[in-house]
């Protein structure tokens, strides 16, 4: 089954797979809503795949890629599931989008009851819907947005740290300082000074895919970068924290580098590599889901979105994959397009293919 909206630009959609469509209707699969509709000859109506109507006999059912196609064939929309109107999932997604805009525009975090009232829902139900769609709670989303505003303000030289914290919507400076090491990787003062005072050890080594730069804070590995030019890799690290105390690793750190290189050479191997992942709450959920993909296997952006409980957030999942700074250990190379082809990879499609080939070869060995 294909999404007709995605195929529209490429011309008419291919014929639907009747067996797969009927299986989706039999299990009332909400994930199939929007991919096709089915019509029943004995009633003259067409429905969403998830419609709760009584099952029809296969011989009386036909499948159509769009509502318009079903109506052109002489069928009328079902009054129960209303396939020609916005689905429940679409209405919920719009309500959550409005709530996100309210959270982003508010100077202080809106109460859950107020967000739910604006969506015409109960607080308990809205909380569940919001988390299912975005992958985080309204409170966590608001915390992430405030942290992002504070980080942006900290980069402005005309703002003091205190001003940046209160302008971002924190009612008390202590609340931001408590979360700062996790959100920024260092204190707010060090962050606004380009990492001044932060200790980051690094080393560059050679591997079969070019060069690899490994960097770590005291909390764990914060970057594994791949490339052809060691100087470019170092500039990438310096651009992130231009005033951090970057020091070459000692003998103990060489062991960490060896583990990282080992992951490049055998990306399916297990390695006790401590990570300082950082990122937003949503990014952390995505990156954790990436680490759950078994070696030698792949997943699509949509599958990752469903795995973190945010089935409509495939585009946000793709952005989180692109923002991943820890190659191989957080295996964003295992994510592919819906049709199984390779999507973009921060360190080059050729490296992505090589990593996948190595994992599959290892999985095929007895």
From TrEMBL:
Cofactor note: Binds 1 zinc ion per subunit.
Family stated for the protein in its record: Belongs to the MGMT family.
Keyword line: Activator, DNA damage, DNA repair, DNA-binding, Metal-binding, Methyltransferase, Transcription, Transcription regulation, Transferase, Zinc
GO biological process: DNA repair; methylation
Stored PANTHER family: BIFUNCTIONAL TRANSCRIPTIONAL ACTIVATOR_DNA REPAIR ENZYME ADA, METHYLATED-DNA--PROTEIN-CYSTEINE METHYLTRANSFERASE
Catalytic machinery residues: 47 (nucleophile), 332 (nucleophile)
Name of this protein: methylated-DNA--[protein]-cysteine S-methyltransferase
Entry binding sites for Zn(2+): 47, 51, 78, 81
Organism: Methylobacterium indicum
InterPro entries referenced in this protein's UniProt entry, alphabetically: Ada-like_dom_sf, Ada_DNA_repair_Zn-bd, Bifunct_regulatory_prot_Ada, Homeodomain-like_sf, HTH_AraC, HTH_AraC-typ_CS, MethylDNA_cys_MeTrfase_AS, MethylDNA_cys_MeTrfase_DNA-bd
GO MF terms held by the record: DNA-binding transcription factor activity; methylated-DNA-[protein]-cysteine S-methyltransferase activity; sequence-specific DNA binding; zinc ion binding
Pfam families (UniProt xref): Ada_Zn_binding, DNA_binding_1, HTH_18
Taxonomic path: Bacteria, Pseudomonadati, Pseudomonadota, Alphaproteobacteria, Hyphomicrobiales
Superkingdom as given in the UniProt entry: Bacteria
Domain HTH araC/xylS-type: 97-194
Gene, per the UniProt record: ada
